[in-house]
Specification:
Elements lengths: L30 H25 L5 E15 L5 E13 L6 E12 L2 E8 L2 E3 L4 E13 L5 H10 L1 E16 L2 E16 L4 E9 L1
Antiparallel strand pairs: 1-2, 2-6, 3-4, 3-5, 3-7, 7-8, 8-9
Length: about 210
């Protein structure tokens, strides 16, 4: 009995695929595109700063626009004293874009460093970008100016009297549905012309 030879198994090796090279492409910006992005970014920052400047709450502008001496009477008995009546008009200007309501407006008057007195007005309302005028009459009776009565007589004879004023306002801003409290205080040196009853000069500083 003849034995058959086993058949040999033949394998054909397939060729390996060629190596692949991967190239990562990064975005390329031309110089004109980069300049355009810088310009847009700068313009956006400027617009944002302008919007914040406009919408940011600001304190009201308070100024005395009229100061009139109604009456000045000097007493020498039983002591040296002065009766003074002053008519004052204060302008409250709202520089913001929100409405403003104030609970009180207080005006104090002094002469050569001595406080004569003050008057407080009632509450009021000022619309956005608007102004309101408040009139007040200050009556000071029996104010002792023993050391300064000579200067007062000289000022009255000269036709100009220097006064010190302190104006204080307290209220709130109507910021959408939120009430933002505000307070402003302004000190002024007011030179009053007693001939035509006008303000000859005024220097103010916010505190």
């Amino acid at each position: 009995m003849a034995h058959s030879k086993p058949k040999a198994d033949y394998y054909t090796h397939l060729p390996l695929p060629p190596p692949q090279n991967y190239v990562v492409l990064t975005p390329y910006y031309t110089s004109s595109n980069r300049n355009r992005c810088r310009i847009l970014f700068t313009v956006s920052l400027i617009l944002l700063a302008a919007i914040m400047y406009v919408l940011w709450p600001s304190d009201p502008d308070v100024k005395i626009v009229r100061f009139k001496l109604n009456r000045v009477h000097i007493h020498t008995f039983p002591r040296v004293a002065v009766d003074i009546s002053i008519f004052v008009t204060v302008r409250v200007r709202n520089t913001g874009v929100y409405s403003m309501g104030y609970t009180f407006l207080d005006v104090g008057v002094g002469y050569r460093g001595k406080r004569l007195g003050h008057v407080r007005s009632e509450s009021g309302h000022v619309r956005a970008r608007g102004s309101s005028y408040v009139d007040a009459v200050l009556e000071f009776d029996g104010v002792e100016l023993l050391a300064d009565v000579v200067y007062l007589l000289e000022d009255l004879a000269r036709g100009t009297v220097p006064f010190d004023t302190v104006t204080e306002i307290k209220g709130q801003l109507g910021l959408f549905f939120v009430q933002v409290p505000l307070m402003a205080k302004v000190s002024c040196e007011v030179l009053v012309n007693t001939v035509n009853q006008s303000i000859a000069r005024q220097n103010c500083n916010a505190e």
